[in-house]
From TrEMBL:
<dbReference type="GO" id="GO:0006355">
    <property type="term" value="P:regulation of DNA-templated transcription"/>
</dbReference>
<protein>
    <submittedName>
        <fullName>Arc family DNA-binding protein</fullName>
    </submittedName>
</protein>
<feature type="region of interest" description="Disordered">
    <location>
        <begin position="1"/>
        <end position="21"/>
    </location>
</feature>
<dbReference type="InterPro" id="IPR053853">
    <property type="entry name" value="FitA-like_RHH"/>
</dbReference>
<feature type="domain" description="Antitoxin FitA-like ribbon-helix-helix">
    <location>
        <begin position="28"/>
        <end position="66"/>
    </location>
</feature>
<dbReference type="InterPro" id="IPR013321">
    <property type="entry name" value="Arc_rbn_hlx_hlx"/>
</dbReference>
<dbReference type="InterPro" id="IPR010985">
    <property type="entry name" value="Ribbon_hlx_hlx"/>
</dbReference>
<feature type="compositionally biased region" description="Basic and acidic residues">
    <location>
        <begin position="1"/>
        <end position="12"/>
    </location>
</feature>
<keyword id="KW-0238">DNA-binding</keyword>
<dbReference type="Pfam" id="PF22513">
    <property type="entry name" value="FitA-like_RHH"/>
</dbReference>
<dbReference type="GO" id="GO:0003677">
    <property type="term" value="F:DNA binding"/>
</dbReference>
């Protein structure tokens, strides 16, 4: 608690602790050369759409790329999105058939 004295008026201000997202103990700096300008523009647009800086967007992309995949959870979510795995299997069959020319 901090007390502020302004002439004849004294008031107390309660200060609350603010937390900042924890950074990993060790971080590295990467420099990537030779990135196509179209790729840079697409990342910039994607970052803007996600409310992130380009640097934060690239960190997010890299983190997602190395994140382990929980296959069971992925199938569960696909089943939920498609109304069941039978419907999902039918959708996959349709995509495969379309890629093979409708066979």
């Amino acid at each position: 608690m901090t007390t502020i004295d302004k002439g004849t008026e004294t008031r107390s201000v309660k200060r609350t602790a603010t937390t900042v997202a924890e950074k990993p103990a060790k971080t590295a700096t990467l420099t990537i050369r030779g990135v196509d300008e179209r790729v840079r523009r697409k990342i910039k647009l994607q970052a803007s759409m996600n409310g992130r800086s380009m640097e934060a967007e690239i960190r997010h992309i890299l983190e997602e790329a190395v994140r382990p995949v929980n296959v069971g959870l992925e199938f569960y979510q696909l089943g939920r999105d498609f109304g069941g795995l039978d419907d999902f299997a039918d959708a996959v069959d349709e995509v495969i058939a379309a890629r093979r020319g409708g066979r």
